[in-house]
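Hi F.,

I've been meaning to write this up properly since the lab meeting, where we talked about keeping a consistent format for the predictions we share between groups. The idea is simple: the sequence comes first, exactly as it goes in, then the structure tokens exactly as they come out, then a line or two of notes. No screenshots and no reformatting. I'm using this chain as the first example so we have something concrete to point to.
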Amino acid sequence: MLAAGLLIPFAGTMLGSAMVFFMRNKIHETFEKFLLGFAAGVMLAASIWSLMLPSIEMADNYTYKFVPAALGFLLGIGFLLVLDTIIPHLHVESKTQEGLKGSKLKNATMMVFAVTLHNIPEGMVIGVTLAAALNSSTNITFASVMVLAAGIALQNFPEGAIISMPLKSEGVSKIKAFLLGTLSGAVEPIFGLLTVLLTSIVITALPYLLSFAAGAMVYVVVEELIPDSQTGKHSNIATIGLAIGFVIMMILDIYFG
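Output, unedited:
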């Protein structure tokens, strides 16, 4: 179960990158919009029921039980804010087109590096929720972790394709484009496992880590998923996907929790 939780998001990136072998240009826009919206809905619901509420429940012994949730959430937002300031900000269409001009190898490396850094917090999110599920004092179940992992995998699917397909259109071989896309998601299981190991050592910090992960997740949704899903045509499909993803994650998390 631990291995599955860590590898499912990575599998999403790998499968997305593999689309370079089957599709000429890119994912159909309507399907991509739905996936982005669905992933946003799953992650929003997960940030509430899988992360924030357990963080508050675990802080019963605190004088002000809202402190871990509030502080951790703000730190999670701040962490990704700093990360986005330091590295190139990834928005799908503009960056892939612009990043492939000039030296293909140099720009491809920069693109993979940017996506890889953006995937680190997602691995941490899975690691934190897995650690919480392993801890008997929390109400987080492995079922909710699997749903969350599936939601992140859905988000990673278009990201993998977004890297591999433009590379192919610029003359990079299919195999190399696939490997570069897959490489961008390899950090997720690594940092997920490191977070599990770290959390098991500093279990007292778990309420802060849960809310930190929630903040990071909400930042990704607000800064990346929603803007990308609402740009251009078919934004209504993304909204429908968000509603479906949110409700499914909420129902599963409440039912299995």
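Notes:
The chain has a mean pLDDT of 80.
The CA atoms of residues 92 and 162 lie 7 Å apart.

If this format works for you, I'll send the rest the same way.

G.
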